[in-house]
Amino acid sequence: QVQLVQSGAEVKRPGASVKVSCKASGSIFTDYYFHWARQAPGQGLEWLGRIIIKSGDAGYEQKFEGRVTMTRDTSINTVYMELGSLTPDDTAVYYCARDGGNFDFDYWGQGTLVTVSS
Amino acid sequence: QSALTQPASVSGSPGQSITISCTGTSSDVGGYNYVSWYQQHPGKAPKLMIYDVTNRPPGVSNRFSGSKSGNTASLTISGLQAEDEADYSCSSFTSSTNFVVFGGGTKLTVL
Fold first, then answer.
1. Which of B38, B93, B104 lies closest to A103 in CB terms?
2. Residue A37 forms contact with B (CB below 8 Å)
3. Looking at chain A from residue 44 to 83, which residues have their Cβ under 8 Å from any Cβ of chain B?
């Protein structure tokens, strides 16, 4: 059974960075792509980017370019999303999700609340 | 990249059918059969309900179905049940970025 387990909630000051982890189990980690999305309070989902586990290549939504970095550690089946230069507008629940094949996200992490406040 | 357009809310009574629309452009919904639908209960992670416009993952009720006409995809839920009350979001591959775009989400209320 596939499971994605994310790291815990974070509180950050404006201007800081946050790094969220997502540990996968129950499937062959390197066979998949993983995505990150976020959901601000009361808002819809917003796609941040995607990482190809086998190569480590990452692609990002243009509005986050230069501020987001996605990496992976295949030795521990974990992907990471680091977002820098945080502002209060980055307050959201951040999700990792596995790509089932055609940009359909078949398994999701439980979400990580990131709060940015002075 | 603009979000796909969904109605903010829809409602229906138990046993009825409802349809949620997801409107994009020829660069996303209209151009590719890579539309997905997600159900999200409050405080929970999204759950994949439909992928590739019409396909249901294992374990998803056949009361949920997907379709597409032109630049608009639709999710239909038949035989509404109280447990269907949730937020529903669509997503699509987009050739504008070669990545993904989400809809704004629709709140379904079961009366």
1. B93
2. yes
3. 44-47, 49-50, 59, 61-62
Q: Which two tokens stand for residue A37?
A: 């999305």
**Is a pLDDT exceeding 90 seen at residue B97?**
no
The partner residues of B25 in beta bridges, in order of sequence, read none
Bridge partners (DSSP) of residue B67 are B74
Question: What confidence tens digit (pLDDT) does each residue in A43-83 have?
Answer: 999 999 999 999 999 999 999 999 999 999 999 999 999 99
- Residue B63 DSSP class: T
Look at residues A37, A1, A3 and name the one whose alpha carbon lies nearest to residue A20: A37
B52 touching chain A per CB within 8 A: yes
Nearest to A45 among B34, B57, B105 (CB): B105
Q: Residue written as tokens 């002075």? A: A118
Residue A102 main-chain phi, psi, to 5 deg: -130, 55
- CA–CA min distance A63, chain B (Å): 9
CA separation, residue A116 to residues A11, A15, A49, A62, A109 (Å): 6, 9, 20, 21, 21
Give pLDDT, residue B2.
57
DSSP assigned state of A31: G
On whether any CB of chain A is under 8 Å from the CB of B89, the answer is yes
